[in-house]
Amino acid sequence: MALNSIASRPTSSLLSRKLRNSNGNDSSLAYSSLSFFNPTPLFSNISFRNASPSPLLSVSVRASSSSTSPSATVANSQELKIKSVPTQPIEGQKTGTSGLRKKVKEFMRENYLANWIQALFDSLPPEDYKNGVLVLGGDGRYFNKEAAQIIIKIAAGNGVGKILVGRLVSLFAILDGILSTPAVSAVIRKREARITRLFVCVVCANGGFIMSASHNPGGPEYDWGIKFNYSSGQPAPESITDKIYGNTLSISEIKVADIPDINLSQLGVTNCGPFSVEVVDPVADYLELLEQVFDFSLIRSLISRSDFRFTFDAMHAVTGAYAKPIFVDKLGASIDSILNGVPLEDFGHGHPDPNLTYAKELVDIMYAEHGPEFGAASDGDGDRNMILGSRFFVTPSDSVAIIAANAEKAIPYFKTGPKGLARSMPTSGALDRVAEKLNLPFYEVPTGWKFFGNLMDAGKLSICGEESFGTGSDHIRKKDGIWAVLSLECKSEGANKMIDYLRDLISKAKTGDVYGDYKLQFADDFTYTDPVDGSVVAKQGVRFVFTDGSRIIFRLSGTGSAGATVRIYIEQFEPDASKHGVDAQIALKPLIDLALSTSKLKEFTGREQPTVIT
C-alpha cells in the first residue's frame, strides 16, 4: 500500500540534461510465456523471447512492428479469415476508474490481455464498432508494441473496419502505437464527422484503446494497463466497465483475424481485405485543437522573450513526443527548455508522476537561485500536470481555480464564459469560491474523469480538476497535461482496516462533536448521484468537514497495480494574504496531527508518515 498525503490551502532538453540509459540490455531479457490459444499459429509473429512451450501455442515477442520495412498487406481479399479461439475466464480483471492495471507479467500470461479485449467487444452494442473506426495509442511503455498487435487482430476479428494508430519518429527513437491520452480523445472527437463520411449508411464506432498505466512506472518488472475511451472521447462509463468485468467471468472464445503483424513504424494505410490500419502522426490533430483553444501568437510572445525562462519536464514519457512540436517549434521556446524529452519504454528508470517527490529534478531547477520563471511537468500518458513558479509550487487545487478565474479573458475558447465548474470531492474548495464569484454552476463529483465527461456531454461543464494533478476542459473528454501548462508502501489489509474503522467512526459522529480545536459540521462517506443519468456511486471517500470550512478526507485509490494507496487530503482556508507564503506543512500541522491521530494510521499501516507529500 502506498500512502500519500496531500495538503492544500487556497493561495492565490529534448534530451534529458543527462540522457539516461533505458536498460540497454533489453534484447537479452527473458520473459515468461504468453500462449496464444490455438494450435494454428495466428500470432506466429508475436512471441516472447525464450518463452516456454504451452499445451496450446507458445508465442514469442518479435517486435516486427518496429521494422522499417513495408508492412504486409493481404492482397485484395474481400473477406478475413476469422478464427474462434477457445479460452477460459481469468481472475482479477475487474476494471476500475482508470481501466485495468496490473504488472506486465500479468498481462503476459496466457490470454490475459486477449480475454479482456474480447470481453470489451462483447460488452459493446455491435453498432458501436462493426465496420467502424477505433483509435489505438499509448504512452510508449514496455509491452505496448506487442499489445498493439494483439488488439489489432482481435479488433479485426470482431468486425472493426479500421484502426488508427499513432507513431513517433525522432532522432532518438521510433515508437509504435504512441498517442497521449488527451490526444486519443482529440482524435476521436475530431474524426467523428470524417469517419461518418467514410462509411456511408453505416453507424461508425467512435472510441479508442489507450495502452497506459498512467503515472505508474514502466518496464518488464513494473506496470502496464489498458483503457477504453468511448464515443465522445470520454472514459468508458461504469455501465460498460461493469459489463466488461462480467464478461471476463464467463468468456469462452476469442475472435481473431488471421492476418500478419502490421508495420506500425511507417505512416500510411495497410489494407487487409475489408479491414485496414492507418498509422498517423500522433501530434497533428491534437496540436490543431490546441491552436483553436489558445492564442498561440500571444503565448509565443511570452515564451520567446529573452527575459522569460521556461522548463518543461516530459519525464521520458509520452509528452516528449509533443514537447518539441508545441513548445519549441510553435511557441518559440528554447530546445534547452525541454527536460527528459525522449519517450522511453521504462521512463528512464523513473516514476512518471509529476509531483514534488518524483519530479525532483525539475523541482531542484525551479527552486534554485535565479531559476526559471515558469516550470511544468506531465505524467506517463500526458493527462496530469504539475505547475511551478520560481521557488514556489502551485497546488492542483489552486491551478484549476486560477485557470477558471481567468479563462474568459485569457483563453479564446472561453470567450463567452465557462458553462460551469467542477472538482473531485477531495480537491480543495478554491474552485467553489471562483464559481460563487462568477455566478457559475458548480459540481462536486467522485474521483474519476468519467463523471466530468457526463456533465460536459450534457452541456453543464467547461472547466474541471481533481486532486491528483489533473486539470482539463470540455475541449476533449479527458484531463490534459499540456492544456494545463498552456492555460507510502504497506499491505492492503491495513489500509482497508483503517478505512473500515473510519467508516464506523463517522456512523456515530454528529454535528458539534469536538476534534481537538475543531468543531464538526458533518462527517460522511461521499456518495454521488449523477445529475445527468441518475447513476449512484458510493464509498468515494471518508470526509470530516468542520465548521470553519477545514476538511480532512481519507480515500483508498485503485490506481496502482499492486497493494493499495491511501490518500489523505487536508484543507484549510486562510483569508489572511500575509500568511499565504507559509509552508503548508507548518500552516496545516494541527489538522495533519488530527488526521493522523483520528485515523490511527500508524496502528493500522505501520507507517508514521507518507511516501509522497504534495
UniProtKB/TrEMBL annotation:
Give all residue intervals belonging to the Alpha-D-phosphohexomutase alpha/beta/alpha domain.
93-252, 285-388, 397-488
Q: Where in the cell is it found?
A: Plastid, Chloroplast
Q: Cite the InterPro entries for this sequence.
A: A-D-PHexomutase_a/b/a-I, A-D-PHexomutase_a/b/a-I/II/III, A-D-PHexomutase_a/b/a-II, A-D-PHexomutase_a/b/a-III, A-D-PHexomutase_C_sf, A-D-PHexomutase_CS, Alpha-D-phosphohexomutase_SF, PGM
Which family is this protein grouped under?
A: Belongs to the phosphohexose mutase family.
What Gene Ontology biological process does one annotation of this record name?
A: glucose metabolic process
Keyword Transferase tagged: no
Keywords from the UniProt entry: Carbohydrate metabolism, Chloroplast, Glucose metabolism, Isomerase, Magnesium, Metal-binding, Phosphoprotein, Plastid, Transit peptide
Enzyme Commission no? 5.4.2.2
Species in which this protein is naturally found? Salvia splendens
Where does it sit, as one GO cellular component term?
cytosol
**How is the quaternary structure described?**
Monomer.
Cofactor dependence is on: Mg(2+)
Q: Name the Gene Ontology molecular function terms of this record.
A: magnesium ion binding; phosphoglucomutase activity
- Protein name stated in the entry: phosphoglucomutase (alpha-D-glucose-1,6-bisphosphate-dependent)
Catalytically driven reaction(s): O-phospho-L-seryl-[protein] + alpha-D-glucose 1-phosphate = alpha-D-glucose 1,6-bisphosphate + L-seryl-[protein]; alpha-D-glucose 1-phosphate = alpha-D-glucose 6-phosphate; alpha-D-glucose 1,6-bisphosphate + L-seryl-[protein] = O-phospho-L-seryl-[protein] + alpha-D-glucose 6-phosphate
